[in-house]
Amino acid sequence: MELNDVKPNSYVFSRILASYRDRGEWQRSFQVLKEMKNCRVNPDRQFYNVMIDTFGKYNCLDHMMATFKRMKVEGIEPDTVTWNTLIDCHCKQGHHNRAEELFEEMQESGCLPCTTTYNIMINSFGEQERWNDVKELLGKMQSQGLLPNVVTYTTLIDIYGKSGRFNDAIECLEVMKSAGLKPSSTMYNALINAYAQRGLSEQAVNAFRVMRGDGLKPSLLALNSLINAFSEDRRDAEAFAVLQYMKENDLKPDVVTHTTLMKALIRVEKFEKVPGVYEEMLLSGCTPDRKARAMLRSALRYMKSTLQS
C-alpha cells in the first residue's frame, strides 16, 4: 500500500490488530496505535472495539478500561459490541460486581442491551446462583421485546445443571421446544455432563436418549461425559459399552476417553485391566497426559501392593 501511495484507514489497522490478537501478540496493540498516529489516521469505533477485545482476551483489564476511557474522551460512543465485550471479560475474570456495574452504565448511557448482553448477565447471575435475578433478567429481556434464543436456553441449562437444579434445566428444554427452537448438541452435552458430575448415570443416559431422539448426533464430549457418569456410578461395563459405541460410529476416542475408562476400572478395583487401556491409548495415537500417567501409576502401585501381601 505504501509503495502505491495508498493511505491505510482505520479499518486496515483494525484488521492488522485483529491478526496480532489471534496470534497471541496482544502487546503489539501499542505499536499499531503508534503507527496509526504516524500515518495521521484516527481510530474509529471498530478499531477501539477490536483493541478492547484484544486486551480482554488476554486478561489485561486495566489496559482494556483505559482504552474504553480514551475512546469516550475522543468522542466515540460505545455500541453494544463495546459494552458486551467489557461486561463479558469482567465476568470471565470473576469480577461479577464490576460486570453488573457496567451493565447498569450501559443502560444509563442510552445503549439498550441486546440478547447477547442478557445472555452474558444470565450466565453471570447463574454462576453466583442468584436465581431470582436470573428470572428477573429473563422477564426484563422479554419486556424489551427480545426473545430468548438457543444460546439463552443453552446458558440456562448449563447453569442450572452445574448447580444441580435439574428440574429447572429440563423445564427450560421443554419451554425451548414449545417455542419452536431446536436444541443443540452443546445443550445436551452440558446436561449430560452435569448429571455425570453427580454420578447420576441413569439421568445422563436418559438425556443421551432424548438427544438421539431429537435427531442429534452425540459428540465425543457428550460420550466422554457419559463414560464419566458410569465411572462415578461404578458401572464399568456400561462405560466400556460407550467406548464400543464410539468405535462403531467412527468417533475416535481421545486421551480423556481412555483416562476416564482407567478411572472407572480403578473405582471397581480392576487394577489389572488399567495397563491394557493405557496401551490401547498409545496404539491409537493418543499422547498420555499427566492425569493418564497418574492413573497408570496408581493402578500399578495397587497391583504391586497386592502381590506383596
TrEMBL record:
The keyword Repeat applies. InterPro entries: PPR_rpt (IPR002885), TPR-like_helical_dom_sf (IPR011990). Keywords: Repeat. PPR repeats lie at residues 9-43, 44-78, 79-113, 114-148, 149-183, 184-218, 219-253, 254-288. PANTHER family: OS03G0856100 PROTEIN (PTHR47447), PENTATRICOPEPTIDE REPEAT-CONTAINING PROTEIN (PTHR47447:SF24). Belongs to the PPR family. P subfamily. NCBIfam families: PPR. This is Pentatricopeptide repeat-containing protein.
